[in-house]
Structure formats: structure tokens, C-alpha cells
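[Discussion] Sanity-checking designs against the backbone

I'm trying to build intuition for which residues belong where. Below is a C-alpha cell string of 181 positions. I'd appreciate it if someone posts a full sequence so I can compare it with mine line by line.
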């Protein structure tokens, strides 16, 4: 699914740099590893090349068809911390799976909350507040199919129902979590 491009922050107020892991600019049409933001209007709290871990892609078209002169963001893959890595089915390197894949599948689940946890031997899917008649095996198969389409060696997928999604010490319940070390 391709989203319509949208405007990056207005460049007369904020400088947005889409860069690779070494802070080198990536060309439009290529997803970066992170975004560096410099705020031009705040004197009390200056942000200079503030690092955000979002993987975004600037549009290849330099300008919006509406006539505004500002850059466009063509896509957002998600935060780098939410990326999971799996062994490649073809052997060799690992395959990086972006959080958008999990959101695409999990956002359709009629649950109060969910969390995908990657462990060394399996992928655990925690569901809270889900209807009793929901088919856990259909969800697991859907995730296996999506992962296989990414070219990964698909681990066993276990769906578990929990009373609540575990929270971090800061009180957050991350949607995607890698427990693999």
C-alpha cells in the first residue's frame, strides 16, 4: 500500500535531514536510518541536529503538485528500535523486517492491545482484551505468510492471550520488542 506524499515540517521553521547510520544524507526515494532535526525558531531550547530514530523516505519529486515549495515525505517505515531481524531464507545475511508489516496485520485484530515479541526460537504474539471466538491460528498463519514474503526463515509463531500487555519501567507498552540478544 502506498500512501500519498505529505509535507515534511516547513523548512523555514525546521531543517529535516534524512540520513544513513553515519549521518550522511540519503537521496530522495531512499529510506534513511534516522532523521536529524534542527529547529530554527526556538531560542530557549535550541535543537540542533536532534536525532530521531524514524526511518523515512523523502519524495523523489522535489515539489508538491499543489505548488508549495517544501519537501515531501513519501513514506514512513517506523522506528529503528522496532525493526526485527531474521535469518534470510536464501542464507547469508539477515533480513530486516520493518514495523509496518506487523502493524498491517495486527491493526486488524479486534483486541484491546497487542505486542509482538521476538525471542531466539520463536515469535510470541501477546493479545489482551480479544474476543473469545477470535481465531488465534488464523492470525499466526497470517504473520507466517507475511514474514515468508519478506524472505525470512519463519520462526514458530505463538499467539498467547494475556490480561494486560507488559509495560516497561517507564510505563510504556511497546508494540514490537526484540528479546533476541
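Best answer:
Here's mine. Compare freely.
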Amino acid at each position: 500500500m502506498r500512501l500519498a506524499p505529505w509535507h515534511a515540517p516547513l523548512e523555514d521553521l525546521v531543517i529535516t535531514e534524512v540520513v544513513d547510520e553515519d549521518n550522511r544524507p540519503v537521496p530522495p526515494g531512499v529510506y534513511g536510518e534516522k532523521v536529524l532535526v534542527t529547529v530554527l525558531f526556538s531560542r530557549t531550547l535550541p535543537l540542533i541536529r536532534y536525532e530521531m530514530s524514524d526511518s523515512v523516505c523523502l519524495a523523489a519529486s522535489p515539489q508538491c503538485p499543489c505548488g508549495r515549495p517544501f519537501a515531501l515525505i513519501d513514506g514512513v517505515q517506523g522506528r529503528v528500535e522496532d525493526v526485527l531481524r531474521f535469518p534470510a531464507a536464501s542464507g547469508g545475511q539477515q533480513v530486516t523486517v520493518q514495523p509496518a508489516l506487523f502493524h498491517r496485520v495486527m491493526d486488524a485484530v479486534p483486541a484491546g492491545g497487542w505486542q509482538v515479541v521476538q525471542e531466539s526460537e520463536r515469535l510470541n504474539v501477546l493479545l489482551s482484551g480479544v474476543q473469545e471466538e477470535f481465531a488465534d491460528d488464523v492470525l499466526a498463519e497470517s504473520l507466517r505468510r507475511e514474514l515468508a514474503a519478506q524472505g525470512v526463515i519463519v520462526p514458530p509463531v505463538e499467539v498467547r492471550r494475556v490480561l494486560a500487555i507488559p509495560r516497561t519501567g517507564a510505563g510504556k507498552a511497546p508494540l514490537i520488542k526484540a528479546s533476541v540478544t
